[in-house]
Amino acid sequence: MSPPDAQTYWISTKIHSDQFLLYCFEDPADSTAEMRRSLIARAALVPDLRLKVRDVPFHADYPYWVPMDVGADHVVAHEPLGSWPDCLLAVGELLTERLESRESPWRLHLFAVSRGSPRCGDAPAVVAVLQVAHALADGRGASALARALFGGQAVAARRSPGPAPWRPAPALALAAARLPAQLASLLVAAVPAHRTHRELERDTAAGVLPPQPTSLPKGPTNARPDERRSVRMVVRDAADLRGPGVTVTVGAMTAISLALTRYLRAQGSEPPADLAAEVTVAKSGQAHARNHFRNVAVDLHPDLADLRERAEAIAASMASRRVRGEHPAAAAADRALRSVPGPLVRWGVEQFDFGAIPDTVTGNTVVSSVDRGPADLSLGGGPVRFTAGFPALSQFMGLTHGVHGIGDTVTIGVTTSASVLADLDAYEAMLHEAIDEVGAAIGAIGWRGAPSPDTLHSVSEAPAEQ
């Protein structure tokens, strides 16, 4: 396992970090039992779905990915649900579950919904939720796994070679043999990492590089959530959020900034004047790990009343954060991490206090934007109607947004806790209203042009920004 993925795995034992990818399929012809059997058989042909984690004795090295058989417990058919509100409750409860990657780093949940699912009219639907440990895949990889399960294209019938059989004694011996080379490599990598960091500081001081975002005071949405999770899904046409020069991601963030400030005022709270979002952006260059992303803080500019100007300012903030993240210092730090021995990385995770509440934050909410490709997925003969996702909450992040697209449909998935957002239905309605206003302001109505190349960028759960 690569150092970033191992770090992610060890962190997952401390806090919830599983990904939940939701896909809604309209009126499948097959029964739930038939779909379950088909999905189990299909998963057995996907190499990454036949892996699990094994720890090296005494944690003397990074964990290993080892072979795993796909069995009946990997696809769970839940009790049928009568309505869409019932589904929302079930998904909220599901978000509190945590995978044990040493047993399996993924599980697929199926919910049959009788009526009321968005974009399905009066027809029944099946909602599939793919739960994936972050160590196995970042959002880009997880979306690819879902496409392998639900894609119309045939999955290769011949199994690809899996990892070699794993034994603890040889792994422990290899850890001891690798340690001197790792330490030497770390010393070598530390020199350019230090040099490029000094260059980063000089470029920032000279104004060549945008400065590091300042820490922000905590706002109402940075309250600690309780153990319950509540979700809503705002399903819209992608054209409602995209306009000339404005991507779906920027359009969604503009709507979120408008709806959130209105909601907080309606609840008697003063919105932060410097409202910001944490956005997970894919790193450039070759990926040396399954997780290849970083988090950046993006200003949401609630002070700009003109929504077109606000969208442009949000886009500019994203661009400046991207420029800073592309500095050679970031790549040099990543190379240095790849040389750190596993026990040191694990020791660092163990020393960190994940329960501590900081005095300041980098954002007041999370926005993760995903384009999951064309709407050519199906399950049991039923076509996909929309997809959604739910970034995890944390001790100091009580509200997150997932902006997930498939085909011409985009869903803003809202995750929170009743202790943070008491009236989630009101916030959902405000999001719909805000999207209407943003669409009118940016000229989105009837505009379905593809985003230009300069507006494309990868984010944690997506091949490219929408």
Question: Could you explain the architecture of this structure?
Answer:
- It contains 10 helices and 16 strands.
- The protein is of the alpha+beta class and 466 residues long.
- The protein has 2 domains: 3-172, 2-Layer Sandwich (Chloramphenicol Acetyltransferase); 182-381 and 388-455, Chloramphenicol Acetyltransferase (2-Layer Sandwich), CATH 3.30.559.
- The strands form 4 sheets. It has a 6-stranded mixed β-sheet, with helices on both faces.
- A hairpin with a 2-residue loop joins strand 15 (399-406) and strand 16 (409-416).
- Helix 1 (3-12) packs parallel to helix 9 (342-351), helix 5 (168-205) packs antiparallel against helix 8 and helix 6 (248-266) packs across helix 10 (424-442).
- The longest helix has 38 residues, at 168-205.
- The chain is globular.
- The model is unreliable at 155-161 and 445-465 (pLDDT under 50).
Index terms:
2 domains; six-stranded mixed sheet; Chloramphenicol Acetyltransferase; 34% helix; 466 residues; 16 strands; alpha+beta
**What can be said about the biggest beta sheet?**
6 strands, mixed
Rg:
22 Å
What do the pLDDT scores average to? 90
Tell me which CATH architecture of the largest domain applies here. Answer: 2-Layer Sandwich
Strand content: 15-25%
According to CATH, what is the topology of the largest domain? Chloramphenicol Acetyltransferase
